[in-house]
Model the fold of this input.
Amino acid sequence: MHLNSTLILNLSAVCAVLINFLLIVLILKKSPKSLGSYKFLMLYINLFEFSYAILYFAEKPDLFTKKSAFFLIVNWKESIFPATMSCLMDLLFVGFFGTSMSILALHFIYRFFSVTNSRYLKIFDSWLIIPIFTVPLINGVLYMITGGIILSADAETDRFMRENYLKVIKNQTNLEDLYYMGPFFWPKLENSITETYFSWKGAEGSLIVMGSIGLSSSIMIFFGIKGYISMNNLLAITSNSEQFQNIQKQLFQALCIQTIIPVVLMHIPASAIYITIFFEKSSVIVGETLSLTIAMYPAMNPLPTIYIVQSYRKAVKDYFISIKNTLLKKPTVIPVSHTVQVIPVSSIFTTTS
Done:
């Protein structure tokens, strides 16, 4: 990977750790009571993204794509961890990607329940929230099994790596120094230079991964559209204040932003890789692009929450004002509001993420 790309990956990972840590503190200390059970969902999401960012910073795997192959690679020789630990972290990275797909779907389901004030929203206020939170983790384990067993290295992939990856990196790395996994659709026939055949092994693993991505995308689209329609209907018939309507519009804007971020940074690049490798049209730049977008995702995803939730935005603003005044040796003045309008939970349902 080029120096500039490595620098961007490191900066993204550091920013992701810091931003998610900040949001976790804000959720714990500055969450308005109107958030209700959504506070726990936000905390769950950001603890996951915080852990993901630390994992990525500690052991950044190399994503290599060319022709009909897509491999996630860890170099034991260059890792700061023992070989067994590097292997496990490579599997965890795959599992975290699968978990993120399910978390996105869960997020949209909750948002729809909150907008429509569904009776199912009570599930998130009971002990049932525990098994619900385990569903994304189960999907992550499924990804780990798929990558570590179905899409594990074999003689065909070893041959491809020797002919392609080792020539690209141009250093003293040997194939024995690498642990890798991934789909390979069109390997060459044994003792052949040009003839290829279709690998059902690669297809089976890819169907599991693409099926998960497709299911996550379908849930996001379905509940996103239903949520948009429900919100418009609510605003059309509501007799609540203008402040309530503004809150609902802000929530919809936040939902749009939080749809765009994972779709652009996760769904589209991952889908593009699987489509291009199936048609033997993938290239190294495709894998490098996915590496960058995956690294950017945990850093960018918390930003809409920090901006949209007023108490979080105000806390961050006040903190920077305090730093500015300290540097300029000015007293910090905190404005006091004499009029407080309380909006019931049943009116705002949630405040966003």
User: Anything to note?
Assistant: Residues 200-237 form the longest helix (38 residues). DSSP finds twelve helices and three strands in the chain. The longest strand covers residues 69-75.
